[in-house]
Amino acid sequence: MDPKRPWECADMSQVRSEIDRIDAALVDLIAERFGYVERAWQLKKDPSEASVPWRIQQVIDKVKTQARQRGLPAEMIDMVGAQWRNMIGWFVQYEEEKLRKQEASSGGPRE
Prior knowledge:
Mean pLDDT: 93
Low-confidence stretches: none
Number of helices: 3
Radius of gyration: 19 Å
Largest sheet: none
Shape: elongated
Strand content: under 5%
Number of strands: 0
Distance between the termini: 51 Å
Structural class: mainly alpha
Order of helices and strands: HHH
């Protein structure tokens, strides 16, 4: 079934169905992003590499620009930035923990 544009929805069940479709796609994309985070920690050498503040800010600025270009209201743009900061914060903690565990099991930092 082809997705409907918002103005093509004739009733609330169609609106809800499209929202559910989008939510499923968002979860799929977050899971896909997580796969790259999983690979990233494997390529890093030690826990200090998990958090790269300039890169975090670069990603947040990019998604806020994309939100702005899509015509989202200013409050939504700020919310998108906050959600990305929250998601990235979790990913950084995840990477740091994985790297610490790897370092402890190997007896020191990787070379």
